[in-house]
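Notes from the pairing session

We agreed to fold both candidates in a single pass and log them together. This is the raw record for the first candidate, unedited. Please don't reformat it; downstream parsing expects exactly this layout.

Candidate A
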Amino acid sequence: MDFNLSEEQIMIRDAARDFAQAELLPGVIERDEKQQFPAEQIKKMGELGFLGMMVDPKYGGSGLDTVSYVLAMEEISKIDASASVVMSVNNSLVCWGLEHYGTEEQKQKYLIPLAKGEIIGAFCLSEPEAGSDATSQKTTAIDKGDYYLLNGTKNWITNGNNASIYLVIAQTHPEKMHKGINALIVEKGMEGFVVGPKENKLGIRGSDTHSLMFTDVKVPKGNRIGDDGFGFKFAMKTLAGGRIGIASQALGIASGAYELALKYSKERKAFGKEISKHQAIAFKLADMALQIEAARHLCIKAAWEKDQKLNYDLSGAMAKLYAADMAMQVTIEAVQIHGGYGFVKEYHVERLMRDAKITQIYEGTSEIQKIVISRSILQD
């Protein structure tokens, strides 16, 4: 085992850290309060290659490994989880799925601008009645010969309004259940496609989360990803990698809160000395550092397995489950260490605590991760 990062990985991590401090930190509290999408910052992330990190350079990507992606996600998430979720969705769910399962024509038309960050994408699986139970797709894609007629509603879609390309999961053959589901590439502006109002959320408030409505949208057959009926498998394969991205986001949120708490504990005095010198606070910091380091190793292990083309279903689920739960615990403690100051917005930790909660919910709830893990260990 080699726990040392390569020079390239260190460079990527440091570049992400510098970008987050210089470009994301200014205005992050105001964007949270106003629910403002970080459009300018996302554009710069695209120009720097953060939106297509693992895509082959021939398709406009940076050609980096998944470990580098994890390192960059952590640094971006320390400062602005609303920006990092855009990065995660575009990299893990949209670009990865198109590169591995799309046709050459689809890659040329859609993947290249996505990987370059010229446009961003969205992954559309959840519905009003199909959240954790992804097999219960009510959105339909009726085969009309040379096109599909798409009807239905999708919920909780990240990048819902700012995306240009949407990967939509829909049922074509209900009698085949999950084996009758397809994945379709839908372009914003197609007739019958309407973006609903923005959700008013607890956390990641800068991210634009919307419902999407499809009414008799004609989607060309050439926009189907994979063979007929491949949609559910496509969604599950894609989400397996997405868990690594969200685990890294949770890791970053926790790391950011810990760094703020550590700094504050060395400045704030109580009973004649810095609070870091009180065992009650020192032990909190020790627990936080331990949990973050454990989560980091789980994230990097899952990323390494993905890079080695091994099965990373188990490691990805473990990383996502542990990192998400850890992020909630660490951010709560960060607020506690700050005392009353932790409860006000200017100290950042209350926002990080709110942002942490979603990592236990999206791209597979913590309960779903336990199902994935238990199935995997019980097969052995």
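Candidate B (folded immediately after A)
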Amino acid sequence: MKIDPLIQSWHAEMTAVRRDIHAHPELGFEEERTSAIVADKLREYGCEVTTGIAKTGIVGTIRVGNSPNSIGLRADMDALPMEETNTFAHRSRHKGKMHGCGHDGHTTMLLTAARYLSETRKFQGTVHFIFQPAEEGPGGGRVMVEEGLFQKFPCDAVFGMHNRPSLPVGKFQIRSGPMMAGAGSFDITIKGKGTHGARPESGIDPVVVASHIVTAAQTIRSRTLSPHDPAVLSITQVHAGDAYNVIPETAVLRGTIRAFRQEVMDAQMQGLARIASQVAAAYGATAHCDIRQGYPPLVNHPEEAAFIADVAASLVGEENVNRNGALVMGSEDFSYMLNAVPGAFILTGQGGSGDHGGSCEVHNPGYDFNDEVLPLGATLFARLVEAKLGTAAS
């Protein structure tokens, strides 16, 4: 691996910063301590710093020369609302909060890239270091875009990355076009007529209605969508009743919808609403559907996907960059940024060796970011800038 020697020399410092952030996790739009660390370090490195974007978001900027060319690099900062089971010294100190997805590592890699680029300045143009809050559900990427991120900080292209424990250290995975699924969620409240469990004829059983909706909803995928369009509709919660001998008045279904094209997301949401309301009506009940679009599908732009893959290959070799990686059913609100500006998102291997990393998947209570990856990720961020805004390129 061709890790920059200067960045490699900072590995111990990077590890200390990453573990400090890990020990003090903060949830979406609450990243006050993390944002303060990021802002202080960016100022220390000589960056222009703008705070308060999407409440706790930060943008650091470096300008070199008079070139109008620009690039954005993004890292997420928030933690998950889950309990950590690790016992190492840098485990979470906040009950019910954990860096279970590696955003502590992403933030540290981007901070280190900012430090390197501010010292070396081997480019002509402008770099914006985008530290985003609230990726884990609240949609900080959407809020940053809606608050004028790319109007205030214009970027010719924007790039992001995410660790992947199932990939060994030193390997990357990407694909052009749709790469990560869009996500939606739903609550369906079925209202029947409650009655004694021994006298079902005097009521309308919402549990029976809910059961038929669960079954019929599966035909949306199997009978209304093309088999060439990957999609998921999962009903993950069923809630009804409190007693053995009472047919309840209501039942509630909840779940998630995933797809890689917005048209398929729309078809699933419309189909679910239609089936729920009409199945309920067939049994004399009603169904109130609250079906919400979440993150849109993450779609990499072809030119930018090829570019970041090329840069990654220059570091680890072409044989270690999968340019046609598998579709990922997980969702990412970097998709909002890619819908606004050309760019690409790459997966970075962190499985295998390391003190704690690589042992389990993200969102697991025993997860920890693999600090071995920090210098490689920071080098990739730095080389993206030098390749995009290098003197020869501009």
